[in-house]
Amino acid sequence: MMKAKLFQPVFLFFILFYFFAGQKSQVFADNMESDSYKIQFGNFNMASGKRSGDTYILSDTMGGLAVGPYGQYGSSNYFIGSGFQYVYQIDYFAFSISKLSIELGELFANSFKTDSHTINITTNGAGGYGVYAFENHPLRMVAGSDTIIDTTCDANDCDETIATSWTDPAQAGFGFNASGDDVSSDFVNTNYFRQFADNEASEAMQQIMGSSNVALDRTATISYKASMPGNQTAGNYQTSIVFVAVPGY
Amino acid sequence: MFLKFLNQVTVCMRYCFFALFFLAINSNLIKAASALDLKVFPPTSYLSVKPGAGVNHQIKLKNDGLYTLEITPALVNFHSDDQVGQVILEQKSDFKYLNLDGDENKWSKSFIIKPGEEQTLNFVIALPSDAEYKEHYLSILFQAKQLLYTNDSSKDTSLSAVVVSNVILLVSADDQNRGELTIEQFFLPKMADSFIGFNFSALVKNIGINATSVDGYIKISHWPDQNVEIYELYPDMVLAGGKRLVRSMLQEDLETLAKMEESKDIKIAAGEDYEAKKAKFINEKLKTKQFYKKSFLIGAYDLELKVGDDILQKRVIVLPFSVLLIAILLPLIYWTFNLLVKSFKKPVDLNN
To answer: Are A68 and B161 within 8 A, CB to CB?
Structure first.
């Protein structure tokens, strides 16, 4: 009974310690705050020392510290009188994809197969961002050479640059829709689809999401849809999709 | 003996329940990990290097996703959209003096980054002594895909990501700022309605040879008040030879932001999502196109735009056009209505 009495506060202490200590949010950058240096203008490097190389003398940018016009943690000298030091602090640019494979399953004529995932972006800065997408090639049969063309939508009027309505499975093809934060305005609703830019055909990747503002935890859902023409072999088709996340300046 | 054991078990269960309860709360606060979650720092760097000199530029990559990633770095040029500071990637770069660990062969070679791991990559910029004085716009691409230990015989469509870190590199003999901003356009209507207000925006051009930041204000004055509103220009960077729409924020809003920042710790302690609230506030107030509206505006409003040493003044005349329009239209509508009523009225037969 004595042991149990001793055990109770110790256990309680560990639980409370875990709860309160564990709540700290993740911090990704080293906290190297500085008000001591004055940034004269945008182009600079914060040299912290010199290294002798074979042919060059190299100075360091200290792991990218003070690499923007404002300094990582808002060097206040730069903003004297303007008050913009609170607008943002340069930090990690983060991009995530919820899953890494799209399972459309076996495709059959005149029926849609779909799948989706989310993408998320945090710029931690006011410079904005853009997310682009492209496919390495059109959907191609896993064991074979048959391909499914990129969708042209219901009225044969969509391509990799513009989304239009696609609800008729008899219009065979492969395309995607984007919905959520900061998505391109041509995705009017979840029935509006676009082709992916085809890298094999040297098509330029296209922007699907973007903003010139501060982006904090911006999420979009990417939905994929495919249907097969009636004269084609049923089976599994695949490609690879690449998302390119670019920070603004 | 058995009762004592039972008592201890009960106590244990009680505390386990307590622990699980807190764990559940805690896990709700932590975001579920994504399959691919890659972070890069810094997103954009501004570097100045002299010909014949060099600099170590370090970029941090962090894998916060569920899988081990295979990263392949690549270098391309970029150009600006000349509007909002958006980076438009080009297909390739012929800039030879920026290499990972100083080795040009490392561009196409991939490396591994495990979940939870952070790597600091050292990019060496080493310029020859005859390097041309010029500003280079470079993007370092990190193509990330899930490391597969077996042959890729998947029936599914695979997804991968490219995360970018931009480098704006000035080749210059000294650290002198040779950026110079001029006002390219100041968009303001000549006339506006008293009840609607007016909007304004400005495009600036950098006629200098290096990127420089916007500095200045937009001031609205209306007789007799000389400073009705002052909008501070956000210090966005404008690349050499490039253009950019300026972003501005009202001085009052900047003060509100400063007050918000002062009470940041209290708000966070109270469980408020401070960063989300702050981002929302900034996005609402810091804009390229500002809209000036009060309950009623009248007369001439003078707007002064100052960017660097360049000053431009414009005037907008604000009158109650909507009231004038209604005043003209009302008698017309009344007259038309009366005419219609008269024409539909049955004629009176005087003989009966």
So the answer is: no
Round to whole Å and give the CA distance between B329 and B241.
51
- Asked whether residue A78 carries a pLDDT value surpassing 60, the answer given is no
CB contact under 8 A, B46 and A42: yes
Interface mutation vs chain A, best among B22, B34, B247, most A CBs within 10 Å: B34
Residues of B in contact with A224 (CB under 8 A): 157
Q: Which CATH architecture has domain B181-247+287-324?
A: Sandwich (2.60)
CB pair distance less than 8 Å for B177 and A41: yes
**Same domain as A141, residue A80:** no
Q: Tally the domains of chain A.
A: 2
Distance CA B35, CA A97 (A): 6
Residue range(s) defining the domain that contains residue A131 = 94-247
Q: Which two tokens stand for residue A107?
A: 């495709």
Domain map (residue ranges) of chain B: 38-148+159-171, 181-247+287-324
Residue in chain B nearest A1 by alpha carbon:
B4
* Mean pLDDT over each residue of chain A, to the nearest integer: 76
Amino acid at B54: G
- Copy the structure tokens of residue A148: 């499914």
**Is the Cβ of B131 closer than 8 Å to some Cβ of chain A?**
no
Q: pLDDT tens across B103-156, in order? A: 999 998 999 999 999 999 999 999 999 999 999 999 999 999 999 865 555 778
Whole-number Cα distances in Å, B335 to B175, B327, B341, B347? 75, 13, 10, 20
Could you give the CA distance from residue B142 to residue A28 in angstroms, rounded to a whole number?
A: 19
Judge if A119 and A188 occupy the same domain.
yes
DSSP character at residue A194: B
Give the number of residues written for chain A: 249
Closest Cα in chain A, distance from residue B310 (Å)? 18
Question: Among partner residues A58, A215, A249, which is closest to B237 by beta-carbon distance?
Answer: A249
Q: Which residues have CB under 8 Å from B168's CB, separation 6+? A: A43, A249, B44, B45, B46, B47, B135, B136, B137, B138, B211, B237, B239
Residues in chain A within 8 Å Cβ distance of B80: 249
- DSSP string spanning B83-101? SS--EEE-S-----SEEET
Helix (H) or strand (E) holding A4: helix A2-22
CB pairs under 8 A between A and B: 316
pLDDT tops 50 at residue A26 = no
What confidence tens digit (pLDDT) does each residue in B337-352 have?
Answer: 988 988 877 665 556 5
Rounded Cα distance between A225 and A165, Å, is 12
Kindly state the average pLDDT of the residues B280-301: 94
Are B57 and A64 in contact, with CB atoms under 8 Å apart?
yes
Contact A28 B239 (CB under 8 A): no
- Residue A117 sits in the same domain as residue A158: yes
**pLDDT score recorded for residue B178:** 87
Encoding tokens for residue A219?
Answer: 């999420």
- B38-148+159-171 belongs to CATH 3.40.250.10: no
More confident residue, A159 or A56: A159
> Which two tokens mark B180?
């110079």
Nearest Cβ partner for B254 among A29, A83, A210 = A83
Cβ A91 vs Cβ A68: under 8 Å: no
